[in-house]
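Teaching assistant here, posting this on the class forum so everyone can see the example we discussed in section. The complex has two components, and the goal was to see what a joint structure prediction looks like when all of them are supplied at once.
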Amino acid sequence: MLKQFLIEVRVRFEALFGRNRLHERVDEELEFHLGMIEEHLLASGVPPEVARIRARRQLGNDTLIRETTVDAWRYAAVDTLLRDVRHSIRALAAQPGFAAVAVLSLALGVGANTGIFSLINSVMLSALPVHDPQSLVMLTNPASNGLTIGKKSGEREELTYSEFRQLREQSTVFSSLMASQIEPEPIPVTVDGFKAEEAAVQLVSSEYFSTLGVPALLGRTLSADDAPDAPNAVISYAYWQRRFGRRADILGTRIAIRQGLFSIIGVAPDSFFGDTVGQLTDVWVPLTLQPLVMPGREWLHERPGDGDKVMWLHVFARLKPGVRVETAQAAANVTFQQGLSVFYGSAETARKQWLRLRPAANGASQIRGQFAGPLKMLLVASGLVFIIACANLANLLLARNTARTREMSVRLALGAGRGRLLRQLLTESMVVAFLGGIAGLGAAWMLRAGLLSLVPDSIHLSDAPDIRVLAFAFILTLVAGLILGLFPALRTINVDALAGLKEQGRGLTGSAAWLRTGKFVVAGQLALSLPLLAGAGLLLRTFQNLRQADLGYEREQLLMMRVDVQMAGYEDQRRLPVFQRLLERVRGVPGVRAASYSKSGLFLGSRSSGSVNVEGYTPSGGDGVSSVWDHVGPGYFSTLGIPLLAGREITERDHPSSSNVCVINEAFAKKFFAGRNPLGMHVNAYEIVGVVRDSRSRSLRGEIEPRFYVPVAQPIDVPRFVTFAIRTAAEPSSVLAGVRRAILSEDPNLPITAASTLTELVNRQMAQDRLLARLSTAFGVVGLLLAAIGLYGVLSYGVARRTNEIGIRKALGAQHGAVMGMILRETGLLLLSGLVAGMFLAAAGSRLIASRLYGVEPTDPTTFVAAVALLTGVAFLAVWVPAYRASRVDPLIALRHE
Amino acid sequence: MGRPQKPATDAIGTLDLLILARLARGPMHGFGIAEYLHEVSAALHVEEGSLYPALHRLESQALVESEWGVSENNRRARFYRLTPRGRKQITLEVSNWRKMVEAVNRVIDPLTS
């Protein structure tokens, strides 16, 4: 079987490409034959020249033979295929309407799916551009104790520097181990003394490049043999191109990063962007020089007894050959927990945290955790669109083939094989599918550009077409073409030749059957469209609700700017005065209505929390009491516009020597002081002097946590940065420059590590919801359009088939209206059944997206009613045109219609 | 127009059967096939001009396959060999042949009885 298959493959290949060789071969064969005849003649005594002539005569006209032999290949099966294809293309060109609708339907279906899949591919599936990504693992710490630096979503993947070093010493299971800063930091750097500009700088251990298996394109990469204080830097290809124009003398260039002066020793290859999908690093510098790059912060050492450990590194490793993940994990955990016991001074606490090894072929990814859910939902939605599109295609092909029943019957009667006909019909559907697939790829390409714009702009995703995506689109198209072509084709072929020949145009078996199937399919399409529309509606409303969500304060005209004084070298005691002076300056900027500051700021991802002591409250469970807190400056709440519910807010009067006070939010009061008056009570050493309304400072969803606010002047621990909250009179972005100048006028070395309007920050939070809302709406609309086209098509055809009957009715006196009414009534049943089925599907489907909804229930009646109304409206429109045409049929023409 | 018809110079459609039957006994080059058929029965005069088109047609239908080899007298020759499908085809052709013979017999029986 296999052997035969291979033979046939070779035959086809030869037929297409073996032209010249064929001629040569035939020549040689005939030469051989001639030679053999000659030999025989010679052996029987005929002289040579005579033998030659006689041999030639015996063979016959060898030119003719040559031609006939070569011709024998002309009808090899593959040639038939080409002829079929050419024929199909001609047939399609003759029916442009059909071709257009078919190709468009498939293009939309394939395009939607491929677009989403390509996004999924980039975000979730792409392997890192490193050597053998499959054997990379990542060490994670899934528990929740400890101080983490960096965004948190999904499983926690950060470790401390000491833990990394401990694990590195433990080399029995790892062949190599490396650590890298969670994400690169945009830092102003100066190159060769030029003006400062921002570059994304990432601290990595010396084994970074060797563990990943990334060689240097130019020069060399960081190496474990370098001295720990060697100020080496490796730059990325993109940075080399962008900033240095790929100049050849890049090595040795000096680059100053905060307090460190580095020398560029190498350039990374083009394809390497880092260890996290979606993040681009420009400059890699050694981890050991962290204090130079982040002055004032020392994250390389922990002393047991320190407040808490700082987890700021991603750790990747390669396992030794033959070592299994479970074994390595167990061994690593031994080391890890020993270290923890020493740090925490207790084995109990140590055991609360543990190490997990996970495969890291795709690297670490922040966005993967956030977007995995929405992308999967969108894949389902695009799948529905694909099914609807295929249904259209099926209907169209079915209709077309039904119209050719007579032609098929004639051919069958004349002796054509069913197999041959089937192949021809299949070829036709494959050609349509192929064209649709190509168009779909184009659509997906365009869609991708739009999709990327919906994913936050801090993310860089490769633009290059991926083989996986192309394969996906190809497979989809193939499946569509085969299955869809098979059904109609088989039905047509199995038509009894005799019956087909006898069929006349008065609406008989073949077309009636198709009409039944066609209507069933359309009802199905309508049923599938409804969940798409309902889902889109729900997600749209979710997005709207989020945009208008009550944060507890006005989100417009609010600017956030974070100033990190520790990095500029201010020690604890100098900080409060500088905060106060900065506040004065900021308040003096034209365009600023009010200003204050807090440590965590709003929607910047910062959060301080820990255990506290609340007067008069004993926890019910065994755990201690914990809460979130923030440090705020004077007039914070009035600046933001958060109403006071009781007492007073924190003002200038609260200074280091006055009594320690704090303000709590509603949630705190409800949780810890239910039924009691909180004013006058104490949280740790702070007396509660005010209660404020709940407000959101980190996320739009979920419960608001209990929180208490202490003055920066009376801190729990002196903040190393503060975030200014600035109310502006006009657009916040216009005031930004002025505020920046004011801050730098106090001290030009002050790093401003964040500067955004609150609306920008909140919008970034809503990125996934925006993606869902926009795309699901797009899919809903496309699905609806396709279903409408299907409906229109089926109905038009039905009306065309019944032209005769309609003509008779009209001749007998039926009015326009009556005919239209008849058509519409009959369609009504179709619509109704589709709607009912759709409702069930929608109700079930909305449960799937329930987790993303905000402010709407999965079975929200308004949304469902709107979806049904929209669907009915569009369906009605699609039906109206054929119905109208039916009513306008001229009886005379109709009666003559065959 | 359609496929090249089997050469009208033979008994209808038998050339294919003869070639396949010979190859069932083992691979051979074109000249050898012609000789064998001539040996078996002088009546089976295979017009050499139609042999090669037939061989190539059979190959294009994947009923036989071929490759270069060396003949008994050390010349380069193209040897043909049956494929699995070709083997199956013989059965089909034989049955067709027998049906045809029967049909012809029925027509001429009245003459001979």
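For the discussion questions: The helical segments of chain B are 14-24, 30-40, 48-60, 84-112. DSSP finds four helices and three strands in chain B. Think about how each of these relates to the inputs above.
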